[in-house]
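Sequence only, no structure available. Ideas?
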Amino acid sequence: MIVVPEAFVRYTVEREGAAGAAWIAELPGIVDELLERWGCVPDGAVMHGGVGVVVPVRRRAEGPAVLKVSYPHPGNVHEPDGFAAWGGRGAVLLYERDDERFAMLLERVRSTTLAELEGGEEVARVAGRISRRLAVPAPPGLPRLADQAEGWEEQLRKDAAQVAHSMPQRLVDAAVATVRELGRSQPHSLVHGDLHPGNILRADREPWLAVDPKGYVGDPGYDGGTLLKTRALAFLAADDVRKAIHHTVDVFAEAAELDRARVRRWAQFRAVEGALWGHRHRFRIARGGAELARLTAFAEHMAELLMEPG
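Reply:
I predicted one. Tokens follow.
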């Protein structure tokens, strides 16, 4: 029976309360049941992300694999649907699934993430290529990003009015315009939905493969916006912030075969959204004080720089 990592226990219970504690208590038994059903044996230390545990295993047919069991949550429902649709194209292979248990048996990849690369240009290029490969016609039944547009606009306006920030109104207006013009009518493509460098891992079958998708239907440019947002700390350390941001947009858009202006607009929206979120909820890596002030100010600066054509 596995030992659930203490950090994962603590984070799950803090986030989910009594329901999380009850699920944690059942988790070792769930893993044992799945190992037996899928003919696997453990093959390494239990790892974890934010919402699930990952158990390295071996099964005769596939050899090295991982068993992933996630906390039951609406945001995790369509992860296996994405993997099934891609069939290993730019993402890890799905071998087995148990939707009731929020569990999957997946191709094993390495622990090195794209975030660990030194060169920002290569990060953007690899992420763009992965985005292009994942942008296939979406199967029916998946959630549409366009259905979130009304909520995005409402939240932007609410946060801009209620939280203390220093962004000029034109930055918020530009983000709202992006939601109205790009968000409400989007392509019928399958997109990752959370394409940041930490969700792209070194692999053996291909150089890099994506993990942890949300499985949305929408604009691949949205994933470009996510990438830019999650590169904020790298941009903060750049000698020329404006140049670094716009070069990343250029490289990602070219590799993903997307319109540069569209990627830039999604990135500007995500920067405004992120700045307002930081002011209201704080960031996981900065809960308060000078560091939170520094990061929210930089998110606002990114939103300003992304207004420019570059």
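The chain is about 50% helix and 15% strand.
Hope that gets you unstuck.
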